[in-house]
Design brief:
The structure holds two protein chains of two kinds.
Chain A lengths: L3 H36 L1 H4 L3 E2 L2 E2 H31 L19
Antiparallel strand pairs in A: 1-2
Chain B lengths: L2 H22 L5 H6 L6 H12 L2 H14 L4 H25 L4 H8 L3 H34 L3 H51 L4 H7 L2 H11 L14 H17 L1 H4 L8 H37 L4 H5 L2 H9 L2 E3 L20 E3 L3 H9 L4 H39 L5 H24 L8 H22 L5 H22 L1 H5 L17 H18 L6 H11 L8
Antiparallel strand pairs in B: 1-2
Helix pairs in contact in B: 1-8, 1-17, 3-8, 3-13, 3-17, 4-13, 4-16, 4-17, 5-11, 5-13, 5-23, 6-7, 6-19, 7-8, 7-17, 7-18, 7-19, 7-20, 8-13, 8-16, 8-17, 8-18, 9-13, 10-13, 11-19, 11-22, 13-16, 16-17, 17-18, 19-20, 19-22, 20-22
The chains are: A mainly alpha, B mainly alpha.
């Protein structure tokens, strides 16, 4: 078992890595939606993506598809991070949930 | 069999399934009643969130609204999907770890204040009430249009069905009926969309038909030729600033809607909360990427059907006749030349008026699909309305029975009493929603502005700061919520005074160029700023609250209650 101090040191590192991942993904989130679909709507109108203007595609199709990838990326990376730091949630089944031991 | 007979059969079958699930899922304790015993699998929760999310308006009205807004329709497309990224990354996992029953639960505990809890509960009730009345209305409209039942009667039937499975099965019954309702509604939208895409572009996948064929360019050109706005060009119908503000307000609002957030309490662990957000968005995106395609196809089809055609010949088309009777489609040969002129709605030359709601509802007929598909669209519309209504009703009743009654007024209440109050409240909520569905007050039409604006300006910042800012305290959060809430509500009331109070003209037109639907962003910014300033000049939160925040941030359970 780790002592309390080591535990909180580890937790701080875990939280820092989590924040870094969130910030990265949110930058992509804003770039494909607010930036590519709205702020750059006019300049991107002149670039064609197949048969529609690029900004139109981002605004009505592309951003939504990227959103899905962002959420799954987060879920997969956090699963890995949880394991690396040994902080996965342990599910207690009814039988062994007698006294609530979860570590 | 006639369309009416098939519709009736489909409606009876689907309603039978919903009732059966309600009976099968009957619950005996509060955990099952409020959060389905926290044992819903991630994929099922994803489908339930999607059905909860996609309302009568998403199903019936959205594609039509987009087809009239053109490029600017993105406010709904990005606005109502982008919020899920915020939910998945910033809120859902931590709220699941917190692991209680409602949104006010978190806000009240985190800010150690029953006053703040009460404000959050009242915001929840108001958001859900505005939202649910529109759903009940939607049920009534589908009944009246497809089965020639009176709107009032339609609302009453809808109320009876929802009351049955929600009172009996609580969140568990609601969740599993929502899973079924998702499949009904998505099939109902995909089949006609694929058929019309194949017909117009030769590609059976609507999303691909939109991107890889020149249909959108042809429509854009056609609109320009007729003196209408260029479909593919941005900011033709709204200013760039408003498109930005409304999109962001809808994103933040989505992440703060109590009936959506509470669905993340129903999964078994933090991991499942993250994954179910992804599944939810996949299921939602199916409709949200198809809707802009339907918008383009239907608009193109309609212009070609009407423009430059002899009015007598157009009137012979059977669906034209039918929709003209309902008053949702208007043909008026103003210049008397016997030929129809299609132009911008506001133009005096325009001879065709179309209600946006027709776009989805008439697609199967316009594409000449079988009566079965037409009936399916009716069942899909009902599924969309009922699933959203049930989620909202639960959010409302839990705010009253759990947050106000149990957590504030009667903390000593036992399991039996709490369950009883929960059931009574959900039943009362159904009655109130039904009443507003039959007699809609002015504010009900402003769902987008009110529900999303309030969620963005009050609940979203408070929850976010509660997780990510350990120093945030009771004083900061409470003032932040109050200022955000009061600012947003009063701005909407002033800008929408015509619809709500019946004044001659808007009391104020906009706030620095931002309209009522986008004002939630300003409210949210105010909330963040006020919270920050006040929290830094008042006492830090007590030690056990810091401990609670630490605990919420890590999936692993470190101490048991």
């Amino acid at each position: 078992m780790l002592s309390n101090e080591q535990l909180s040191e580890k937790q701080r590192e875990y939280w820092k890595r989590n924040i870094r991942l969130i910030v990265t993904l949110l930058i992509i989130w804003a770039s494909v939606s607010l930036l590519a679909g709205i702020i750059l709507a006019k300049p991107f109108s002149n670039i064609m993506f197949f048969e529609v203007p690029l900004s139109f595609w981002f605004a009505q199709q592309g951003s939504i598809i990227v959103f899905i990838f962002l959420i799954f990326t987060y879920a997969i990376k956090m699963d890995r991070l949880d394991r690396e730091f040994g902080v996965e949630e342990v599910i207690l089944t009814e039988e062994k949930d007698s006294k609530g031991d979860e570590s | 069999m006639t369309v009416e007979a098939i519709t009736l059969t489909l409606v009876v079958i689907t309603f039978g399934i919903y009732i059966y699930i309600g009976w099968w899922a009957k619950v005996k304790d509060t955990s099952n009643f409020f959060v389905a015993g926290k044992e819903i699998p991630a994929v099922a929760n994803g489908a339930a969130i999607a059905a909860d999310w996609m309302s009568a308006a998403s199903f019936i009205s959205m594609a039509g609204l987009i087809s009239f807004l053109g490029y600017d329709g993105t406010i709904y497309l990005m606005g109502w999907t982008g919020g899920y990224v915020l939910l998945a990354l910033l809120l859902a996992p931590y709220l699941r770890k917190f692991g209680r029953y409602t949104v006010p639960d978190f806000i009240g505990d985190r800010y150690y204040s029953n006053g703040t809890r009460a404000v959050a509960a009242i915001a929840t009730i108001f958001i859900s009430l505005t939202y649910v009345a529109g759903q009940m209305r939607g049920v009534g409209i589908v009944f009246s249009r497809y089965l020639q039942v009176d709107i009032t009667m339609g609302v009453v039937i809808g109320m009876a069905i929802v009351a049955f499975f929600a009172v009996l099965g609580g969140m568990k019954g609601i969740t599993w009926t929502q899973v079924i309702q998702y499949f009904v509604l998505i099939i109902a939208i995909i089949i006609p969309a694929a058929a019309i895409s194949l017909k117009l572009t030769g590609i059976p996948i609507p999303q691909a038909g939109l991107t890889f064929s020149d249909i959108a360019q042809r429509l854009s050109q056609l609109q320009v030729d007729l003196g209408m706005t260029e479909y593919l060009a941005p900011f033709q119908n709204m200013s760039g600033l408003n498109v930005f503000a409304v999109t962001l307000a809808l994103m933040l609002g989505t992440a703060g809607l109590p009936h959506v957030i509470v669905r993340f309490y129903t999964v078994k662990d933090v991991r499942s909360a993250r994954w179910s957000a992804g599944w939810a968005l996949i299921f939602i995106a199916l409709l949200y990427t198809v809707a802009p395609a339907i918008g383009v196809f239907a608009k193109y089809n309609l212009i070609n059907t009407f423009n430059d055609q002899p009015i007598e010949q157009v009137r012979e088309i059977s669906w034209v006749e039918k929709w003209e009777e309902t008053g949702l489609l208007g043909l008026d040969d103003k210049n008397g030349d016997g030929i129809l002129n299609f132009a911008e709605d506001t133009s005096p030359q325009n001879e065709v008026t179309i209600d946006p709601d027709i776009i989805v509802l008439s697609t199967p007929e316009v594409a000449q699909l079988s009566p079965f598909i037409i009936a399916l669209v009716a069942a899909g519309g009902l599924a969309a309305a009922l699933s959203t209504a049930s989620g909202l009703l639960l959010a409302m009743s839990s705010a009253v029975s759990h947050d106000l009654y149990y957590r504030i007024f009667k903390p000593g209440a036992n399991e039996q009493q709490r369950l009883k109050v929960g059931r009574i409240m959900i039943f009362l909520a159904v009655l109130v929603a039904g009443y507003f569905g039959i007699h809609p007050p002015g504010f009900v039409g402003e769902v987008v502005a009110f529900a999303f604006g309030i969620a963005a300006a009050s609940l979203f910042p408070a929850i976010l700061l509660g997780i990510f800012d350990k120093r945030m305290n009771r004083e900061g959060a409470t003032w932040g919520i109050l200022v955000g809430l009061i600012f947003t509500v009063s701005m909407i009331l002033l800008m929408r005074s015509v619809e709500i109070f019946g004044t001659e003209s808007q009391i104020i037109e906009s706030f620095l160029g931002i309209n009522a639907q986008g004002i939630g962003v300003v409210g949210a910014i105010l909330n963040f700023v006020i919270s920050f300033i006040i929290s830094r000049s008042t006492q830090a939160p007590p030690e056990e609250i810091s401990q609670m925040v630490e605990d919420v941030r890590v999936p692993k359970v470190t101490k048991k209650e």
